[in-house]
Amino acid sequence: MVENLLFSLATALPIFLVMCAGYLMKYKQLIDSHFIKQANFMVFYVALPVKLFYDTSMTSVQEYFDIGFIIFVGIVTIGGAVFSWVTGNLLIRNPHQVGAFAQGAFRGNFLYIGFSLMENILGRIALKGPLAVAIIVPLYNILSVIILTYAGKDKSKRISLANTLKDIGKNPLIFAITAGILVSLLPVEIPLVIARTMNYFASVATPLALIAIGASFNFGHIDVNLIPALLASSIKLIILPLFAVVSAVSIGYSSEDIILIYVLTGVPTATVSFIMAAAMDADQDLASNIIMISTLLSVLTMTLFVFAFRSAGII
Known about the structure:
- The chain is an all-alpha fold.
- About 80% of the residues lie in helices and about 0% in strands.
- It has one domain (about 1-310): Na+/H+ antiporter like fold.
- It has 14 helices and no strands.
């Protein structure tokens, strides 16, 4: 039991400590808001796409393509969004907060924090990871637009679904995965010099993303939004992943698939949810507080889930 607990702490705690380092760097003015903005840009448009392209291109897509898994991930994602939206309408008294609450409760930061956790557990990204990204990233954007449009008050700031679909088509992550799939299907091998170069960029993605997340922590308005932020974080970190994992175990998915499903559902709220909330006139202060609280609490919930997986023999 002690060994399992130590393994769990060694898996989740380093992620949290790197984020804390980012916060301290910002606090000590070693980095500033401009650095955070540029770091996020580099991760999203360069390092992470290179990593996803490399991982996808080196995987036998035909061997690991699983339509049942795609359907399961899609149902879990849509179901989580609907549950969060309904819960927000039932429990949040301020209508202006419902959109930010619902998005914060279902939209996870699996690309940065989740994949970091997965690499700590498995030593790599799960083979079906890029496939899951190709499904969830578009779903997250579409579902967020629908929820924030319906819950928003200022119609002039609403984002159309058509424009969202266009943006998805230009998303560098989707483009990288698509290109990686095409390369994996061709009878070619990536030259060693290019592969090593891409590995350098891939190595930058995780630590830089975690530092930027920690440096972005904002404790403003936390006293006002504490209850709805805690409720949204509980849905994101406990309720949704518990349902998804239990369902995956019942279906009989492999250990690696179960870990991937947990990562897709049980990590803290995505930082992009703040950007979406601000753009669509939702409560951006609540959105920011949900990101921060869910991230802080995730070190505990991720440790407990990993401990449970380890004790059950899944890891």
